[in-house]
Amino acid sequence: MQSTIRLAAAAAAAALALTAGAAQAADFVSVALETTLDKPADVAWPKISGYCDIGAWMKTTCTITSGTDNQVGAVRLIAGRISELLVARTAWSYSYSQPKSPIDYHGTVEIRPIDKGHSKLLYTLVYDAEPLATPEAKAADKDRRAKQFTVVLATMKGIAEAK
């Protein structure tokens, strides 16, 4: 009886090892964008720090579907189809994830004071490109996201510097 149990345990361990070995490795990609604002952080940040402000930056809709706006745990729905969870917030930043995303997508919006008249605005994306089919598809995806969020960052700059 014990030899049967040991044999079954060894077979299960071998199957688990084979399954673990077959898993694909992550291929994490970062897209880090930044711009300098001609406004101090304490003036600019309130204009762009709202969790659903992304609707204005991307010229689409954004609604809070769960939780409390601007608080960790809030869920926003962008363009009626993209669900994002607010996972961290500080006085000068916030980070979000797309929990159902096959690419394990995350983003961070941050402002850093430079001096009394200027600040730096940063938008960073991190995701797993492994599910994308080819190296060319991965490069094209990263390029598309960089271009899209460069436009977003320019829109944020305009809003942050407006009087």
Describe the structure.
This protein is α+β, with helices and mostly antiparallel strands. The protein has one domain: Alpha-D-Glucose-1,6-Bisphosphate, Chain A, domain 4, CATH 3.30.530.20. Strands 1-7-6-5-4-3-2 form a 7-stranded antiparallel beta sheet. Helix 2 crosses helix 4. The longest helix has 27 residues.
Properties at a glance:
single chain, about 160 residues, alpha+beta, Alpha-D-Glucose-1,6-Bisphosphate, Chain A, domain 4, 4 helices, 7 strands, globular, disordered N terminus
Low-confidence stretches: 3-22
Number of domains: 1
Percent helix: 25-40%
Number of helices: 4
Strand order of the largest sheet: 1-7-6-5-4-3-2
Structure summarized in a few sentences:
The protein has helices at 2-22, 41-48, 54-57, 135-161, and strands at 28-37, 62-66, 75-78, 82-90, 93-97, 106-115, 118-128.
What's the SSE blueprint?
Elements: H1 2-22, E1 28-37, H2 41-48, H3 54-57, E2 62-66, E3 75-78, E4 82-90, E5 93-97, E6 106-115, E7 118-128, H4 135-161
Antiparallel strand pairs: 1-7, 2-3, 3-4, 4-5, 5-6, 6-7
Helix pairs in contact: 2-4
